[in-house]
Amino acid sequence: MKVSELVKELNLVVFSGEEGLNREIRGGYVSDLLSDVMGNATEGEIWITLQTHRNVVAIASLKELACVLLVSSLKPEQGTIDHSNSEGIPVLGTTCSTFEIAGLLYQKIKG
Amino acid sequence: MIELKFHISGGDFDTAGTASSETKKILKQLNIDSKVIKRTVVALYEGEVNIAAHAWKGEVAVTVKDHQIVALLKDEGPGIADINMAMLEGFSTASPKVREMGFGAGMGLPNMKKNADLLEVESTPGVGTTVRMSFDF
Ligand SMILES: Nc1ncnc2c1ncn2[C@@H]1O[C@H](COP(=O)(O)OP(=O)(O)OP(=O)(O)O)[C@@H](O)[C@H]1O
Ligand SMILES: [Mg+2]
């Protein structure tokens, strides 16, 4: 599924990185520990987190993740937005909690 | 042979990540196997962030040879008193502020060990730490 399709289906906010909206999502990873994501996330996954600083995009880009999804109405910092735009990695948002959005995403991607 | 150099300041999490992302671009241009690039950037990122999180300042040098990438990370900082302990997954002395950002899981050095073909850590408490990693291709 493309990031843009998921945005539509789950009514997600697109904060930045629009250029990457056609990236393909092949799975998901939920974590707020950066080294955990660095060590264990896989290329093409959507990363669900509450971390909003620019290292999130740095990691997403290094790991070639599909996009980043911020939960619970959190907003990215300006540095995060800038980095997301220059790397073309979308940063998305939702009002849902991690639990709720992970459940919805699981159905869409794996269901 | 190509050599890349980067400076990292303690506490500066905005520029930490530059060495790995610049290195990634160069390795891609050199058409190096994508699995090797992935291993290299994961380990290099962890090394960079450790300088930002735990040291005062440091230098990173990445050398690309015929069949090997070598990363040398040399910092001035508090050093590591017990390297075996630091290598254990879950061990961390990260500050509360650093933990709030999602660092401090104690997984950085284990990630470096897993992804590098060779990892050597030398440290003098109160002076600094030198990390040498190599990646074969
Ligand atoms: N360059 C360094 N200078 C001083 N101490 C270091 C350095 N690198 C690592 N350490 C010490 O080793 C510990 C473990 O490092 P490691 O990278 O595994 O975990 P972390 O940095 O604490 O957390 P994480 O990497 O998961 O965000 C650190 O908490 C710190 O005490
Ligand atoms: Mg670390």
What's the CATH superfamily of chain B, by name?
A: Histidine kinase-like ATPase, C-terminal domain
Tell me the CATH architecture of chain B: 2-Layer Sandwich
CATH topology of chain A: Udp-n-acetylmuramoylalanyl-d-glutamate--2,6- Diaminopimelate Ligase, Chain: A, domain 1
Q: Give me the CATH fold name of chain B.
A: Heat Shock Protein 90
Number of H/I helices of chain A:
5
Average of per-residue pLDDT values of chain B: 97
Order of helices and strands of chain A: HEEHEHEHEH
Fraction of residues of chain A in helices?
A: 40-55%
Query: What low-confidence regions of chain A span 5 or more consecutive residues with pLDDT below 50?
Result: none
CATH superfamily (homologous) name of chain A: HprK N-terminal domain-like
Shape-level CATH architecture of chain A: 3-Layer(aba) Sandwich
> How far is the N terminus from the C terminus of chain B?
14 Å
Q: Major sheet of chain B: size, sense and barrel closure?
A: 5 strands, antiparallel
Percentage of β-strand residues of chain B: 25-35%
User: Regarding CATH, which class of chain A?
Assistant: Alpha Beta
Principal-axis shape of chain B equals globular
Query: Number of folding domains of chain B?
Result: 1
Shape of chain A: globular
Given helix and strand content, the structural type of chain B is: alpha+beta
Q: Could you characterize the architecture of this molecule?
A:
The complex is a heterodimer of chains A (111) and B (137). Chain A contains five helices and five strands, in the order H-E-E-H-E-H-E-H-E-H. Chain A is an alpha/beta fold and 111 residues long. In chain A, helix 3 runs parallel beside helix 4 (78-87). Chain A is globular and about 35 Å long. Chain A starts with a helix and ends with a helix. The mean pLDDT of chain A is 97. Chain B has 137 residues and is α+β, with helices and mostly antiparallel strands. Chain B has a single domain (2-136), classed as Heat Shock Protein 90 (2-Layer Sandwich), CATH 3.30.565. Chain B has helices at residues 18-29, 34-54, 83-86, 96-100, 108-115, and strands spanning 2-9, 57-64, 68-76, 118-124, 128-136. A five-stranded antiparallel β-sheet of chain B has the order 1-2-3-5-4, with helices on one face. The two termini of chain B are 14 Å apart. The interface between A and B is medium-sized, with 19 and 23 residues. Bound molecules: adenosine-5'-triphosphate and magnesium ion. Magnesium ion (MG) binds at residues 46, 49-50, 53, 108 of chain B.
